[in-house]
Structure formats: C-alpha cells, structure tokens
Amino acid sequence: MSLIVTRAEPSVAGVGDYITLMKPRVMSLVVFTAIVGLLIAPVHVHPVIALTALICITVGAGAAGALNMWYDADIDACMARTAGRPIPRGRITPGEAAGFGMTLAAFSVVSLGLLVNFVAAALLAFTIAFYVVIYTIWLKRSTSQNIVIGGVAGALPPMIGWAAATGSLAVEPVLLFLIIFFWTPPHFWALALFRSEDYARAKVPMLPVVAGDRETRRQILLYALVLAPLGTAPWFLGYAGPLFGAVALALGAVMIALALRVRAEKHGHRAGKQLFGFSLLYLFLLFAMLLVDRLSAGLFDHLGHLAE
C-alpha cells in the first residue's frame, strides 16, 4: 500500500488581486450613494455608527463583486474588457473567490445588524442576494432586460444608508432609488453599444446584441426622458432647495441632448461613449449637490439658532 502525499500550492494572489475582485470602481459608486443617503437623513448619527455602517456597506459591495466575478469567470475570459480580471488570469481560483465573497457577505450583514440596526442589515442582505442570484446567475444570461431588472441592486445603497441612520425608510430615499434605477439602463446600454462584440462573443444577451443598435439607441433616449425630470423630483417635492433644482435641470438637459445624439448617430459610437462618460458625472454631481444642499441648509439653521 503506497502513501500519496499531496501538497497545496501556495496562492499566487496578492492583495491587489483581492481588491480587484471586489470591483473597487463599482464599489466607490455604491459607497458614495450610500453616504449621501446616510447624511441627508433628518437625524443625528454618531460618527462611530456612521463609519461602521459605511464599512459594512463597503464590504457588502465588495462581497457582491467577488461573487459576481466567481460566477461570471467564463464570461469574463471571453471579453476583452474583463479578460484581465484575477480569475481568468489564474491569479485566484473560483473556489477562493467564492469563499472570499461569502465570508465578506456574512461579515458585512451580521456586523451591520448587530452594530447598527437590522433594517439596514436586511436591505444589505437583500441587495447582495439580488445582485448575485437574480442578476448574475439568472437575468444576465437569460434576458436583454438584465440591466433593467438587475438595476434594483445598484439602486438600493442610498436606502441602506438612510436606514442605517434612521432604522426606517421614507419617500426621500425611495426617490434616490428611482433615480439610480432609471439611470442604470442608459448608462450601461451606452457602454454595451461600443462593447457589443464582446457581449456577443460571451453570449450575453445585452440589448444591442439581441435587438440591435437602433432599438438600443431608442431605449436609451426613452430612459433619459424619464430620468431627467425624475432627477429634479427632490427639489420639486420640497426635499431640496433651488440650487439643487437648477443643477438637476441642467444635468437632465445635457443627458437628454446626449441621448438625442446617440439616437441620431448612424455610424460609430462617439456619442455613445460621450453619454457613458457623462452619465457617471451626472449621477455624481446630482447626489453631490443633494448632499451640499442638505449640509448647507443645516449650517444656515445652526447659524440662525446662534444668532437668536
């Protein structure tokens, strides 16, 4: 009887590989919108509680990214945009990625529930599950509406931030959810227009692959026409001041103008690339102005009380 001894090979993954696995660019947008949701809530939040909540949300976003890369490793290997990710390159094994993602998910949800509140933890758990199970595993490979329905997960962070501050929900964070939800399709479809060959090669049924460029451009315009007035809703409904309203109107007008250019473009993808780039600026500036509006209003109120 022979004894066979196996030796585990050391992992070649470095810290940077695990950071990449967490999708830091996507994570930064998630965390920023969650910060806005937390800070505009009409309550005082202890800085330690706020920091704890944001760390948990950040880790939860990283968990969703890691689990997405675990399941989509075969797709990533087929696409030029994603072939350099850690799993296709062989830096991290699928099992390592899955274990890393599940550990982060459990840690973030449990910590948020125990240290902040269970409403925020439940929303974070739902967000991770929706992104991984509903979007990544189910929708992404089965329907051209994957981005539309899957956008629910990306739109929830401001609601999680608000819930972390208040322990409840209200109309205002729902508005922020709707803004991100309607922003997601034109943002990602603009990218898909000039990456359609990648998606076709990976057999991902993105809208340009399934319905063609013309229909995709039409859908981008339709969503932009809904998004622009929706972006002004916090001002229109009295949740933000006139400065936010003016900025939101200007941003919405540019968004529609660029969507019209995308709709009219017959050859090439210059307008699509411009819309993709501007859409990131649109969301950042809109949420940043909402934060500036709320913080400045609080400052003026404080100065008014001191003057009395």
Short key terms for the protein model shown above:
single chain, 308 residues, mainly alpha, Tetracycline Repressor, domain 2, 2 domains, 15 helices, 77% helix, disordered N terminus
What does this structure look like?
- The protein has 308 residues and is mainly α.
- It folds into two domains: 151 residues, Tetracycline Repressor, domain 2 (Orthogonal Bundle); 129 residues.
- The protein is 77% helix and 0% strand.
- Helix 12 runs antiparallel to helix 14.
- The N terminus and C terminus are likely disordered.
Distance between the termini: 92 Å
Estimate what percentage of residues fall within beta strands.
under 5%
CATH class of the largest domain: Mainly Alpha
The best one-word shape is flat
Whole-number average pLDDT?
A: 92
Number of strands: 0
Number of domains: 2
Largest sheet entry: none
Based on the coordinates given, report the CATH architecture of the largest domain.
Orthogonal Bundle
Q: Could you tell me the radius of gyration in angstroms?
A: 21 Å
Helix count equals 15
Task: Indicate the low-confidence ranges by residue numbers.
Answer: 1-8, 302-307
| Helix content bin | over 70%
CATH topology grouping of the largest domain: Tetracycline Repressor, domain 2
The CATH H-level superfamily of the largest domain is UbiA prenyltransferase
Helix/sheet category = mainly alpha
Order of secondary-structure elements = HHHHHHHHHHHHHHH
Oligomer: single chain
